[in-house]
Amino acid sequence: GGGGGGGVSESAIQSAPTPWETELLTGFDQFCATRQVAARLAHAPRFPPEISTSARLIRRLVDVPFGRPRLRGLLVRCAAFAAGLGMTVLLVYLAVSHEGWAACLAVIFGTLWYICFYAFAQNEYHNLFRTYGLLRAARAETYRRAEQYAALAPEQAAPRLDDPVVRKYTADVLAAGFVHVGDVSPVPFEEADGTYRIFRAPTRGTYLVLNCWARTRSGDETYPYWPMLVDFECQTFFSDGGRVDSLNQRTHDSNISDRPASTRLLTFPKVADPLALYQAHMEAVETVLDETTAMTVRHEPLDLYIRRQEQISEEEHRASARRGYSWRDHIRWYFQLDAKSSDNSK
Q1: Distance, CA of 267 to CA of 214 (rounded, Å)
Q2: Are 80 and 138 within 8 A, CB to CB?
């Protein structure tokens, strides 16, 4: 059962674009391709300057990416910097031994070594020490209370999700055979930053969710998004109480350690399409079915799906109250010890 989703879909989903929408999206595509904005669309645009080729190269040399285990990358770079320092010392020694050519090379090589090492050390110092307080505070804020959710009536959902990006993804998902079962918001509605558009997948009791964010917060300040920021989530629940939960954003921070065997919390940061996320998610579901005795739970009415989300939030809230973000958690995050080796999955 889908909780009467068919009726909701017909009246809540806005399919007719506003007159200027096509031109605006065409202009956005042009900007992505050329970094230029048509004069009629540019009221006061401010775009970050392009990163120079040399700066991009240095960043690539010194940055150890997240989303996969970092220890090997850190060790390789440390070894390279140690070798570079040894080479610089050797060139200085040769220069002192009256090898004139070595003095020039020592200056050039030493300067390059210092620039790269300084950028590397500064970046890793920030990741290891300064980020700890930020992540601890963010974790505490995320789980400071157990969220409550409620389904929106069609007349409530329509103006909230009247957005070109939401329309596009909604049309794509419906065309692929998914069924819209409703739109959900945290309560109280007026304080919610986002709205969740819920779809039933064609098979395996899986749900696909468009997480539609209208604004973000920084302290007491609120900053609106336009178009809305939309990320994607897929969920499949199992008979042992576990779930496969896939996101295309790195937001799976959790204090819960004693999870059912079927639970997989995955991120696919390079996925930019909800249907591609669904495909990656279903591969993980198949793996769980092969490796465990758990069975998938069939689709449920929307109110029961909402109760599941509230239960997840309640469990995270209780776990966070018992045990906050520790240095042990931070070290695991810093080295990405829980990440997969793949570039696409955490």
Answers
A1: 22
A2: no
Per-residue pLDDT in tens (0 to 9) along the chain, 346 residues: 333 333 344 445 555 555 556 666 667 667 667 767 666 665 534 444 555 666 677 777 888 988 788 999 999 999 999 999 999 999 888 888 877 778 888 888 899 999 999 999 999 999 999 999 888 888 777 777 888 999 999 999 999 999 989 999 999 999 999 999 999 999 988 888 999 999 999 987 999 999 999 988 776 788 888 889 999 999 999 999 999 999 998 765 677 777 888 999 888 888 889 999 999 999 999 999 999 999 999 999 999 999 999 999 998 888 877 887 889 889 988 998 876 554 444 3
CA distance 309 to 303: 10
Give the C-alpha separation, 267 to 252, whole Å.
7
Q: Which residue has the tokens 């956005």?
A: 28
Q: Beta partners for 342?
A: none
